[in-house]
Amino acid sequence: MGKVPATEAFGLAAKDESGVLSPFRFSRRFQFLLDKLISCCSVGICRTDVCMARNEWGFTTYPLVPGHKIVGVVTEIGAKVIKLKAGDKVGVGYMLSSCRSCDICTDDQENHCPKMTMTSGGKYYDDTMTYGGYSDHLVCEEDYIIRIPENLPLDAAAPLLCAGVTVYSPLKSHGLDKPGIHIGVVGLGGLGHVAVKFAKAMDGKTDEAINRLGADLFLVSRDPEEMKDAMGTMDGIIDTVSATHSLLPLLGLLKYKGKLIMVEDGGGKFDRIGGIKESQEMVDFAGKHNITADIELISADYVNMAMERLEKGDVRYRFVIDVANTMKPTP
């Protein structure tokens, strides 16, 4: 009851642990009364996609359609949808659903819910597999959809749904979002470059800049003199580096009661993201301050090459697939 026929979809999927992506036709799950059908316009690529495609964490189910920072336009809505309408710009991040009833969910931290359903490579409560955003459309419940501000371009907004909330959340929750706070960001990659932009906007100095990111100072951690001069100067440090590295030099940079926050686990596994309420707050903040990710827009047929380049750190700073114009079924 309350269902309509499943929708046929086209995307890119990994079929085995080689992680190579190839064209894939599949059916999206039934749409329910509270679902929205989203025509995907762009989707970001990150290290999580590579790890899942290659089963580096040991729980991938094939075929896998990656993609968990998805932006697009609502094309159809269920009968009970009230929050959005057809034509709205929206996004979907790392999760499609959660239990909604546990203490974690009621505290707006659905990303930590034991029954959280991943957008890609998870299993929905109707026992269907979840296929991610490397595809032409997506079905999602309205409570897990993020509204994208009109002034933000969809392609450059896509990485915010993962990298953006991963750094915005700790800045807010640890009190590092106040004017005058001195923040250090370790690692200038996909996460780090967005962290710099958010930290500067929170400090109210968006017009000050070194290069394009808005940092006040670039500190080379391998330079002992630079590190010595910066000792005890930082209220907080956001560490975005996934590779194994020493934390002792970073601790020395902190003021008394300063905070070192790691948003990677040292092995490249799982960015911490945030709940739906906080994700919407983050995107709204980005819209207010015109914050987007720095991206390289690619076609769907370039994805495998992009993943190879990503492994080498050869991107500034996020790849985004132009789904709307290049994700086309083969005859």
From TrEMBL:
Superkingdom: Eukaryota
Pfam families, per database record: ADH_N (PF08240)
Listed InterPro entries: ADH-like_N, CAD-like, GroES-like_sf, NAD(P)-bd_dom_sf
Keywords on record: Metal-binding, Oxidoreductase, Zinc
Cofactor(s) listed in the protein's UniProt record: Zn(2+)
Domain Alcohol dehydrogenase-like N-terminal, chain residue ranges per copy: 37-150
GO terms for MF: metal ion binding; oxidoreductase activity, acting on the CH-OH group of donors, NAD or NADP as acceptor
Family stated for the protein in its record: Belongs to the zinc-containing alcohol dehydrogenase family.
UniProt protein name: Alcohol dehydrogenase-like N-terminal domain-containing protein
Provenance organism: Brassica carinata
